[in-house]
Specification:
about 190 residues
Length: about 190
């Protein structure tokens, strides 16, 4: 029952579409009608509101972290179940017809709770890749792979396997981006102030 509770907790937390809610509250309409159509921070950035994008990033990260921390009170197995389900909830929210975000920020929150050194390394890899190439998708792909490679050196086998599974899901969710990167048509991001 505790594992079921952890799964439900994780999924429900993950399925809160902060990007969609924040852009609607700000009077910017439905975030799913612009850019990639996703509900995450990168697409919120395409509205021109860096503040809303940053808030979306923080809230999506926080729900991943919170799911693991709360479920850890029921044991490490429950924490791992919540870790997987919070990302599934973000990527496939029932309220939005199973069309959510890519899971990157939520995954970072999960990994902060599971293995903060891995999360720190992945975040630094993301930042370096984004600054060098100006592609959020490429940064996410490289950071996910880096986290999966580093995890076995830092955490136990089950946690490392969960982090590898998270990385695989992120990579699979980015398949349209991978095609656009190869074709040279992927949208760039601006990390300038303002």
């Amino acid at each position: 029952m505790t594992l079921l509770a952890a799964a439900v907790l994780g999924y429900l937390l993950g399925s809160i579409p902060f990007g969609l809610l924040l852009t609607r509250l700000a009077g910017l309409g439905d975030i799913r009608r612009i850019g990639s159509g996703n509900i995450g921070a990168t697409n919120v950035l395409r509205t021109g509101s860096k503040g809303l994008a940053a808030l979306t990033l923080l809230l999506d990260l926080a729900k991943g972290w919170a799911a693991v921390v709360i479920a850890r009170g029921w044991g490490e197995d429950a924490a791992l179940v919540a870790a997987g389900c919070v990302i599934i909830g973000h990527v496939f929210p029932v309220w939005l017809g199973w069309r959510g975000g890519k899971g990157v920020a939520t995954a970072l929150g999960v990994i902060i709770a599971l293995a903060w050194p891995v999360a720190l390394a992945a975040a630094l890899v993301w930042l370096a890749t984004a600054l060098l190439f100006h592609y959020a998708s490429l940064a996410a792909l490289v950071a996910a792979a880096a986290g999966a490679v580093l995890a076995p050196l830092v955490v136990d086998g089950r946690t490392a396997l969960m982090i590898a599974g998270i990385a695989l899901l992120i990579i699979l969710r980015h398949h349209p981006n991978i095609r656009r990167l190869i074709a040279g048509t992927e949208s760039r991001i601006s990390l300038d102030k303002g």
